[in-house]
Amino acid sequence: MKTILVTGAHGQLGQCFQKQSKKYPNFKMLFCSSRELDITSQEALQQFFKQHQIDFCINAAAYTNVEQAEKEREKAFLVNAEAAKNIAEICKKNGAVLFHFSTDYVFNGQSQKPYKEFDEVNPINVYGSSKLKGEKEIQSAMEDYFILRTSWLYSEFGHNFFRTILKKAAENANLNITTSQIGTPTNANDLAEYVLRIIHSGSKAFGLYHFSNEGEATWYDFAEEILRYSGKMDQVTLNKTGFFKTLAKRPEYSVLSKERFVEAFGSLKDWKSSLHGLIDEN
Ligand SMILES: NC(=O)c1ccc[n+]([C@@H]2O[C@H](COP(=O)([O-])OP(=O)(O)OC[C@H]3O[C@@H](n4cnc5c(N)ncnc54)[C@H](OP(=O)(O)O)[C@@H]3O)[C@@H](O)[C@H]2O)c1
């Protein structure tokens, strides 16, 4: 039986792992929240790995507040880079395979075409820089890792754009949504499902991959599709805005090319069909 540790298990992606792993009764899943296992503590990690024989570690823990990271640089780097290094070293020492998640924000957004894994990275905010450092720490500490860069995660869990838009619809809000960024919404359940499928397959195609749903959208397109498909379009006033004032700069274009992932592991759902599936389910 494979023993799989999931850190940050109470976060959005962590909760998707809790849901999707029900399809794999033969996996022994160990879900740890930030309180149960603080990944910035080497001692806590060492103790945990001593107590359990871990085959796979899924690091769903991260500092993800993009705005706040501009003011808490040290904390963002501690969780996203230092702790990623801790986890990589402990995985290597214990012969565990590591799954780690990074972001489209490692790119500066000036491209006109989907970013490939080995295109030049050049983050324009603190969060992106801290996640990039995390990738590098893992790559220099070990070999048996999967780093999946993903984008615009949403699901029925945690804090995300999908849930915010539905909440705003219930409040009959007036919404100004930006058209100035292009990316790909990604159902976090698809990501969790794929990771578990890769573990189940026993694949050793380790490395860096891009993972998102297929297609591209602006945040306005995403909001419109959430409202249209869930039949809530007439509950809000939806306005397009070109300008969106934030502390952290965002890449204007951050669509990821999934060619490498698809070749290794199989096809991905289109963002609209995956969104429809989630709305139908809930
Ligand atoms: N959300 C997105 O749009 C997006 C886009 C691209 C990439 N990603 C990446 O995808 C991954 C999952 O993101 P998500 O949306 O699931 O984020 P999330 O909902 O913010 O979950 C992150 C979890 O990490 C936990 N955590 C923070 N510091 C920790 C520590 N020191 N030790 C242990 N746990 C800690 C948090 O717990 P507390 O709440 O208790 O602190 C939280 O439960 C992250 O690597 C993120 O960078 C996300």
Would you give an account of this structure?
- The chain has a 6-stranded parallel beta sheet, sandwiched between helices. The chain has a two-stranded parallel ribbon with strand order 6-9.
- With about 280 residues, it is α/β, with parallel strands linked by helices.
- It has helices at about 10-20, 40-50, 65-70, 75-95, 125-140, 160-170, 190-200, 220-230, 260-265, 270-280; strands spanning about 1-5, 25-30, 55-60, 95-105, 145-150, 155, 175-180, 180-185, 185, 205-210, 215-220, 235-240.
- The radius of gyration is 18 Å and the shape is globular.
- Helix 2 (about 40-50) packs parallel to helix 4, helix 4 (about 75-95) packs parallel to helix 5 (about 125-140) and helix 6 crosses helix 8 (about 220-230).
- The chain has 10 helices and 12 strands.
- Strand 1, helix 1 and strand 2 form a beta-alpha-beta unit.
- The structure holds NADP nicotinamide-adenine-dinucleotide phosphate (NAP).
- NADP nicotinamide-adenine-dinucleotide phosphate binds next to helix 1, helix 4 and strand 4.
- The site of NADP nicotinamide-adenine-dinucleotide phosphate has 26 residues, from helix 1, helix 4 and strand 4.
Strand and helix map with partners:
Layout: E1 2-7, H1 12-20, E2 27-32, H2 42-51, E3 56-59, H3 66-69, H4 73-94, E4 97-103, H5 126-141, E5 145-150, E6 153-154, H6 161-170, E7 174-178, E8 182-183, E9 186-187, H7 188-201, E10 207-210, E11 217-218, H8 219-229, E12 237-241, H9 259-265, H10 271-281
Parallel strand pairs: 1-2, 1-3, 3-4, 4-5, 5-10, 6-9, 7-12
Antiparallel strand pairs: 8-11
